[in-house]
Amino acid sequence: MAIAIDIQSVTRAYGPIKALDGIDLAIKAGEFFTLLGSSGCGKSTLLKLIGGFDRPTKGRILFEGRDVIDVPANKRPVNTVFQNLALFPHMTVAENIGYGLKLRGLSGAALKAKVEDALDLVELPGFGPRGIAMMSGGQRQRVALARALVMEPGILLLDEPLTGLDERLRQQMRDEFGRLHRRTGATFILVTHNQDEALSLSDRMAIMHQGRIEQLDVPAQFFARPANSFVAGFVGIDTLLKPERIEQHSDGLRAVIGGQSLRLRSPMGSLGDDSLVAIRPDRLRISESLDGADLVLTVVGTTFRGLQTDVHLAFADGQSLVAVVSSDSPSATLAHGARVPLSLLPDAAMLLSGLGMPPAA
Amino acid sequence: MTVHEGFGNRALLWIIAILGLLVIYAPPLYLLAISFNPALQPSLPSLSALSLDWYMALPREKALIGALQQSLLIAFATAVFATALSLLAALAYVELRFGRTSWFLLVLLPMFVPGVVQGLALSAVFSRLGVKASMITLISGHLLWAMPFAFIVILTSFAAVRQNFLLAAADLGANRWRQFVDVTLPLIRPGLVSAFIFSFLLSLNEFTRAFYLSGRQNTLPVVLFSKMNSGASPVIYAMSGAIFIASVLMVAALALYNLLGRRAPVLEAQ
């Protein structure tokens, strides 16, 4: 049975440092929910609180409306795939997977059947008698998943489970998580610093920063309506420009940058003096002629990225943005110093409250 | 492959190593050789004259056999208690956050108290309390001697018990006791076995504390010492040789156990 989680003004302080600062979060039963953020943002602390490995300093955590603060980890309907997997080195694959069931009192044929089902589920049939040391990185990942899922948890916690795998395996395991989520119907909570993982898997996700949730939404909204410059930077909208001033025109707001004026999508919420203009690289087009161009910028470099090429373009004041073009288009070979006309699709530029940039990944 | 140093350097290292081993092992091996000499005067036997005469005579030496029994009994009791108490001390160390270093030094300190001082101090305290010297007093003395070693050995084995293993066990429904039995204990088993054997040997061969603390029945080292001073028969060489061989066999068994018991590189990539 999938379980809904209600986190109510939860704070976890270590001395004067607040790892979590008044978190309110409702996770629906059966949802694939992701906590996204860089290291130290509090996402792992929140996971620990849900798993029962730690207690909040303040606040309540409810499972299906029942307060579980005083329920220890071994009595919660939660299972975890740990960051470094934590497979028991002195047990075989089958013993690892069967350990929790054994504690529940299962034995003999019933235990064996369940373990074998779990091995089938993660596509490792026949691997039961092997030692953990004989399994590859990807196989260990599957064993850890099977060990948690065999318990039929209402909530499955995934703590940076793909760290340390190579890109191909990450891709493969990511698909596996999606498949297992549909298959088991449990509430999945993933903690990660990798936005690709978060975006491709989550029903909803929260971006965390310094113990707070910066934005909580469905993945697409993080691009359409990032809450602030931090969120925009985190999901890959890395062009954030400081405007000289903001002007109110009859057709809406316009920002003046390097002497040129560009149309802005109406902002969310209130904005201070530290507002930044975020520009989505996928909404820029390099045009043929200077007529009707929204901006005219100077090429300061190109970066070849395989199928696509980043063209770096600078304003008169030195601030720059990136336009992504197909590598076989003529724009990909623009010379340094060339003047280039740009047209902006609607919603290309938005005004965001400044919260700084996330640290480079 | 690293580039090797010159032949001269390597030869020098070998010579130093062999000399060192010679200094360590020559005396007990000399003693062992003497024990196979049927002559009354202690000297190296000629190869043609090797004999087990003195070993055959051993069972008739009531005093030595009694001392050996006493020593084995005390060594066994010491090993059991030292291992159990050191396990508890190591668990405490693992649980402690602050004061870890103090606890570590506190448990270790008896190792640095000279045997003469410790034996004298204990016997003074026991007589003050009106406790007669007996097997119990000697075991308590040996416990002080063996425990620091057992503690270090067990503590070292705790490196295999990652905090995450215990969290994972809790996650799967294990309470503290089951975490200990199912995860901690199997992972530190090699340490427990080593600690037991070390404590056993340390107690078996200990002289100074036994000299002060044993009751009516002296332990083997004490009896051997007194017999040596009273110019006894070469049977004592046979007894020494037997003890030496037994000790070597036990250490060899331990090494073999650790070699075979180790399952592939389990900790790799964890």
Automatic annotation (TrEMBL), chain A:
Protein name: Spermidine/putrescine ABC transporter
Keyword Nucleotide-binding set for record: yes
GO molecular function, one term: ATP hydrolysis activity
Keyword vocabulary terms for this entry: ATP-binding, Nucleotide-binding, Transport
Family statement drawn from the similarity comment of this UniProt entry: Belongs to the ABC transporter superfamily.
GO cellular component, as recorded: ATP-binding cassette (ABC) transporter complex
GO biological process, one term: putrescine transport
Domain of life, per lineage: Bacteria
InterPro entries for this protein: AAA+_ATPase (IPR003593), ABC_SmlMolc_Importer (IPR050093), ABC_transporter-like_ATP-bd (IPR003439), ABC_transporter-like_CS (IPR017871), Mo/tungstate-bd_C_term_dom (IPR008995), P-loop_NTPase (IPR027417), Transp-assoc_OB_typ2 (IPR013611)
Domain ABC transporter: 5-235
The species this protein was found in: Xaviernesmea oryzae
Keyword Transport (UniProt): yes
Pfam families membership: ABC_tran (PF00005), TOBE_2 (PF08402)
Automatic annotation (TrEMBL), chain B:
Annotated coiled-coil segments of the chain: none
Domain of life: Bacteria
Transmembrane spans: 12-36, 72-94, 103-126, 138-160, 180-204, 235-260
UniProt keywords, alphabetically: Cell membrane, Membrane, Transmembrane, Transmembrane helix, Transport
Record's GO cellular component terms: plasma membrane
GO-annotated biological processes: transmembrane transport
Database matches in PROSITE patterns: ABC_TM1
Predominant location category: membrane
Domain ABC transmembrane type-1 residue range list: 68-261
Assigned protein family: Belongs to the binding-protein-dependent transport system permease family. CysTW subfamily.
Protein name in the entry: Polyamine ABC transporter
